[in-house]
Design brief:
mainly alpha, 11 helices, CARD_BinCARD, endoplasmic reticulum, disulfide bond, single chain, rod-shaped, Death Domain, Fas
Length: 179
């Protein structure tokens, strides 16, 4: 949703009575006048800060003027509003719409916990099995002549590999060494 559409949606909320006082509107206009790139020229800033016009009229004219200028100008207005009236900024109707979760959207925090619910012990066990199989494959390759070393490594690894798996590996190593 573009900032211009959001501003159009929030216009009634912002212009309703006692939402923004004159000091806050003046601060926002001054910030829009002084920010780089300059959103309001000096003449426009004086027009929107004119104390002879009512606050409601000045604010309505300012919001309409910003909508005509484009999305970047509306975005800068929201930034100025957030800096000068943060509570009002958080209460905007468009902000409440943005905060409501989409039921079809995936919650990445929840997904992260679903993928990592096994903990570090599971990771270490998987890593140990993978490292053991890699060592076994490396030392049991027919091109290498170090089967005795593999037998010694597997013989001292009942913690990493279960006893039944270790026995099967040892039988395989003995069978390969006979051939």
């Amino acid at each position: 949703q573009s900032y211009c559409h959001r501003l159009q949606h929030d216009m009634y909320f912002l212009t309703s009575t006692s939402r923004l006082n004159e000091q806050v509107v003046d601060k926002i206009v001054l910030q829009l006048n002084r920010v780089y790139p300059q959103i309001l020229t000096n003449e426009e800033a004086e027009k929107f800060r004119n104390p002879k016009a009512s606050l409601h009229t000045r604010l309505s004219d300012l919001l309409k003027h910003l909508q005509k200028k484009g999305d970047r100008h509306c975005q800068e207005f929201y930034r100025a509003l957030q800096i000068n009236a943060e509570q009002l900024f958080n209460d905007l109707p468009s902000r409440k719409i943005l905060k409501t979760p989409d039921p079809t959207e995936i919650d990445t925090d929840k997904e992260q916990y679903m993928l990592n619910d096994r903990g570090p012990v599971f990771f270490l066990a998987c890593f140990s099995v993978a490292a053991g199989l890699a060592l076994f494959w490396y030392y049991c390759n027919s091109e290498t002549q170090v089967i005795g070393r593999a037998r010694r490594i597997l013989g001292f690894s009942p913690i990493i590999i279960g006893r039944h798996v270790r026995n099967i590996c040892m039988l395989y190593l003995e069978d390969v060494s006979r051939n």
